[in-house]
Amino acid sequence: MNALERHRKLTTIWASEKGFKGWFSTVNHTDLGRMFLVTAFFFFIIGGLLAMLIRVQLATPHSAFAGPEIYNQIFTMHGTIMMFLFAIPTFEGLAIYLLPKILGTRDLAFPRLTAYGYWCYAFGGSMMLVAMVFGIAPNGGWFMYPPLSSAIYSPGINTDFWLIGITFVEISAIAAAVEITVSILKYRAPGMSLDKMPIFAWYALITALMILTGFPPLILGSVLLEVERAFGFPFFQADLGGDSLLWQHLFWLFGHPEVYIIFLPAAGVISTILPVMCRTTLLGYGWIVAAALALAFLSFGLWVHHMFTTGIPHMGLAFFSAASTLVAVPTGVQIFAWIGTMWKGRPELRLPMLHLLGFFFTFVIGGLTGVMVAVVPFDWQAHDTAFITAHLHYVLFGGFVFPIFAGIYYWLPHVTGRRRFFRLGELAFALVFIGFHVTFLAMHWVGLLGQRRRIPTYAPEDGWTAINLISSVGSFVLAIGIGMILIDVILHVLTASRGRRNPWGAGTLEWAMPTPPLAYNFASLPHITSRDPLVDEPDLAVQLARGEGYLGTPRNTWRETLTVDIASGKPDMHVIYPSNTRLPILMSAVTGVFFVSLLLKFYWTVPVAVIGVALLVWRWVWGLGRGADLAPLSIGHGITLPNAGMTDRSPGWWGSVFLLTANATFFGSLLFGFAFLWTVAPGWPPPVWFDPSMTELGAGLSGAIIGPIAMRLAKSVNGKGRNSVTGATMALFGAILIGVACAAMMWRTPSPVDHAYGATLFVLGSYGLFHACLAMLMTSFLIARIVRGFTSAVRRAEFSIIGLWVDYTSVIGVLVLLAAHLPGVLQ
Amino acid sequence: MLAGAGLIFALVMVLLLLAFRPRADVGDAGDVRVWVIGLGLAFPMAVLAALLAYGLVIGEKLLPLASDDVVRVGAQGRLSTWSFTYADVPNRRTQDVLHIPAARPVDVSITTADVIHSFWVPRLAGKLDAIPGRTNILRIEADLPGTYHGVSAEFSGTGYDHFTFTVIAHDAEDWDAFLNEDIE
Amino acid sequence: MKDIFRILIAPLVWFASFSAVYGLHGLLCGHEVSGVVLGLPLERAYLVAAYVCAIAVQVVLIVALYSSRLASPSPFVRFVSHATGWVGLIATIWSLVPVVFTTYCG
Ligand code: HEM
Ligand SMILES: [Cu+2]
Questions:
Q1: Carries keyword Translocase (chain A) (predicted)?
Q2: What order do you get walking across the sheet with B106-112 strand by strand?
Q3: Fewer CB within 10 Å: N-end or C-end of chain C?
């Protein structure tokens, strides 16, 4: 088979449907990455227009441009769009587009999940836009503090749009994070051990892990607040045993890591581009990996620095002040390693490099003002003034937007296969750079003069008029600059001057393919022996196109790839991907029905949507099965691998592990909330305690013991080639017991609208019940599989996956039941 | 603090610019020991340790330590007004104007009747929030008699921009007069 | 998986001990405790003891990560896990140092 035939064959297997119809059924990471990025930039423009409105309003004193009702919506939506609908999805899009290419494989771990995530993002984002168009957008500021955002003080639907819309969008973040984590750990080219991984992959891995542990507290907070608003459960009401500070803890437990979730991918872009712009390699690769890890961890210990003025005891503040200063150290390591890289090489002032310089200049200032506000007494003055707004834009614009612009110019030739023809970019950069600094230096200044953030008007006597006007003029220069970048990019896409392959002389694998990229990325997969494969082997692309790598011969109509051992990069499984399908968009539409029903309080459609999702998930997973065993398959070069469905540690197992990590963080945050209310909230103890019952507790605990044992039994019986239906049925029975115990607990809990104690127990019980139902669904699925002959001693992947979920359900079931029954039993 | 930050910024920018200088031989200019361990680890840790110590010491000094001289007042935020009470004159309540003696420490007990607010008189002290169900105590002190501008510094919906108040610091004589209900 | 664990363990333990000491501080301030141990008020004694324990655990982790029996076979993972081990130790010492001298419950 020659290269052209191979290309034709692979294209028929991998191509998406032609035309716009393909958008709805594609599961290809290149398509979805581009869709993510385009949508995210659409939201960036919307968010930017809102920013312009803010600056118009603040340009003059006593401004009558927008009334306070509208103005509050404008800045809330600006912050919300920029953080949730632009920054995070941009990371997701970049990672989805780039990772398989840079790791030398053909797609991400779960192609349909990528598509599902995209559609959840698109639908959730549209919900927010609808709210804005109708003038009922959220208006409580992007961190939505109750009681201002509770039903009494914000009776309208505005806040519900935020809580429900953002949670919907968050699903896509969690989906992408699971996807990215598993892809980086398992889906790499053979030979790519951890130390040969491109640095961007490290950053993306760390970011994805942070999303998995950082977003659940916010999701929990949103759920609790929405339940409070809709049903009157008083989680955040001080007079009924709740506490508004609980929201602040949950929000910032997410909110601070969020800042690094935004910065780290940008740092990954910098670490990738900078060495190429300097014709050298990255200085201190291992140090940078360690620094990024340290940054990720430390960032989880800082959240209280957003709450320095809430009256937390002095020593508590001191801990977080200390931790907040410390986080600057790993940032410093990265900055100096990058400057060292520039000293090591010969930096050239090409366009991406300009934006990188913009990054250095801006981000260092933002970091320094950040260290200043980490000092408690200074923060007591600066908090909630324009100084903070200025600081956060130095960090976010400097630490994210400039690097992303650098990335756009760097990878645009890859996406389009073209050369830049018009030279608008340099001028645009100058305008953005100057405009940005004029706008936000002025805001630092006016903040120090005492201007609060989020005020719609001020008086001429305040003496801020001139500075605000300067700031607003600056922001228009900035906007023109961004507009020019947009035009530059569009012109680039439209002009027809073909570029050459690997225009920057980079060493990473994404350039070892024709551009624009093909649906299957690589005609055959490379064997990796160093961090810059293209430097060692400049014509690698040609060799791969000739099929000299792994999996060079298309088989059946399978979309094939392979996975590797995490640490060593030795190939360990053969994978067949699903192909084009509309299932993801359908499922996210039904998920959308669920959220919209909650929003509009059509509670009778909620169960319909839940059942719909359950059915679709069933269908989704069912399709992965095989009716007969598959012998180990050859991947070329004399290596044969078992198919993933014939192993215990299949991709589905890995995905479950990381989904459960996020899930456990959610549950942990719930337990934290319970303990927090119990020990810290005013208005405790509750008027009535839960009445413990040994029968219910006993039933739940035995269910939790039976389930895991039965699953292990089923697995070992199946391994011996015998029928394992008894074990699976026992596991189903265990799940039912847990479910009954949790339902009874919810039934008998002290009235959840009277005190936060009952409310929390009710939520804990529903968490347990939900997982019990999930476990019932999964074990029933397994039974159906066994009965239909879809399992065998070889086809055994499902046993491990479902076993994992049953184990998890048992653990949380026990904890939930103990939380309710134990205090009473002990008394 | 600002000067220190300026110096560090200047240092980073100079290092960045020097990377562009024409060089014959680039060899070992990129040494991990210098860049990562020296500049990346040791340098920030030294600076930050000093800064942290400084911040913690100042923080200790700002604590409302017990003292005989302290005057106690209450401040309650409620969507768009602050009302103030005085421990020394139990029935006195003022709206949007807080009276305090000059040159004496004053402890303000901050509470709220509805949403979260924040009590901030920029020239007298930092800000402290009014949280439902809690009482927070802020120590303020005006060195000189006079009028000080105060604002509510936590977003509280429409009307937030006009949510301000005034603090009047009296000299000893006026303060006595206030306590004896001669000043309204 | 083991290698990932080696890399993450020390900072994870830091996070746990940081939260635990913060929680302990909250508990001590919420429930009046009084008494004197070794010339220290009881609250301070508890906090300092917790601080010392947290540091000790980190030291043990570092020793383990350097030991030939428990270290990773891959030199790269060894390097990174040593680095994060030190991160855990330094972060513990640094972020909890206020227990030694700042006012508690103020
Ligand atoms: C395009 C240029 C931008 C301009 C001119 C701009 C301008 C502003 C202004 C003036 C405010 C303050 C409103 C106030 O509180 O008085 C603001 C708030 C904010 N901005 Fe931006 N911004 C820009 C880009 C961004 C980006 C890229 C991000 C994040 C990735 C961002 C995130 C935020 C957030 C989180 C807030 C706080 C919203 C709130 O208080 O609820 N902005 N922006
Ligand atoms: Cu923060």
A1: yes
A2: B89-95, B81-86, B71-78, B106-112, B136-140
A3: N
